[in-house]
Amino acid sequence: MRIGEVARQAGVSVRALRYYEEQDLLQAQRSTGGQRHYPESAVARVRLIQQLFAAGLPSRSVRLVLPCVDSGTAAPGLLDHLEAERARISERITDLAAARDRLDTVIANTRNPPPECTHDPK
Question: Domain 1-73, CATH 3.30.450.190 — does that match?
Answer without folding.
Answer: no
